[in-house]
Amino acid sequence: MSGKLEYRKILRFPNLELTEYQVTSEETVDYNCFAFAAGEEECRWDPVDPDGYWPDGVSRELTLEAFIQAYQTIGYEPCENRDLEPGFQKIAIYTYNGQPQHAARQEEDGKWKSKLGDWEDIEHELEGLENPNYYGVVQQILKRAIIPINIS
Amino acid sequence: MPSLKIHRQYQSGLAKIIALDNSVFEAILTALRKTVPALPLDDLVTNLESEVENTNHDDLVNILESIIPIYALKKTYAWTVEELADELIAAVDKFEELSNLSTEEKERFCEKLNGLLMPNSFLESASKAKDVLKVYLLPSGIPADDFPIKSKVELEAEFKKFAEEWRVETGMLSLVTQKSMHQAYQRIIGMGQPVIPLILRDLEQKPDHWFWALRAITGDNPVKPEQRGRMKQMALAWIQWGKEHGYEW
Description:
Oligomer: heterodimer
Number of domains of chain B: 2
Low-confidence stretches of chain A: none
Helix content of chain B: 55-70%
Number of helices of chain B: 13
Distance between the termini of chain A: 33 Å
Strand order of the largest sheet of chain A: 1-6-5-4-3-7-2
Largest sheet of chain B: 2 strands, antiparallel
Number of strands of chain A: 7
Number of domains of chain A: 1
């Protein structure tokens, strides 16, 4: 699966066409960007929807603090830069007016990947999805160590 | 937009709604959400009497007789809550007995209208609404028998139109709370109980974000905590709920 988004979708994210990106999945509502960033493709992470999944013990509120705490439950911690660091996975959280609207995860090759709402997953540059109308700007980077798998 | 005039016999009902304590009004709405649609008024009152404390039979009759046509008006003219509230307040201003309402009392009335109209679908019986309209809130200049009642075909077309508009305009959003605030989604919620089979049919064909609307319309939620966030499981839970509650689609 690769290619470009339909024109009607591109209109929502004008920066995408100014940067490199490619579609990497079909459309689905099964998961959202916050779940995808956490490596989950069977459910939707949503703190403010009573029917959304949210890690136990984390405040159900649309704040950056609550999202940091949610990702901390799976080993992520705040960090300062978005550069690729060997041995670490990273998540970028976009906020608009301080409220998280989107999240992307960094792949092993340093490229970023995320799910556009109910639309497709795309591989993209972080700036490509920055947008004053929807996702806002990247506000926070998180990282966690990749646990090596021993194959004997 | 037609302007309203309110029949004198129902002034006391509206006055009671305005004066009613918010918690009692909430209790009435909660009880109505559990009520089978299109019950005769007497049965509705009997059901509510067992659920709502601090009110009496005559008051409930009075209040329900006022609520029914308000709901019907919203459906008939597809007014937004704000438009309907504006119209009703303007009409209330014309009552001699109610013309001295304070700003605070008018705000309370608006709050109650919001609670009444947005999540509630207790009376979708077109014939009942039409009958009450004949004697109650008659838009001036429109014959009493000329209230368009939506057919099933019209309802389906409206649902399809709003659903498409909502999908196109919110597809990029990640949070259901933001998707569900879209005007087209709210219009679907405003269609009330008759739209439930259409939503369930849509869910059966392909899971989508209808759970917020279903909760708002029915006041119920069959989704178990362990199913949260899992669209296919939540869709199945609501489809099962629909079958258990006698819906066909």
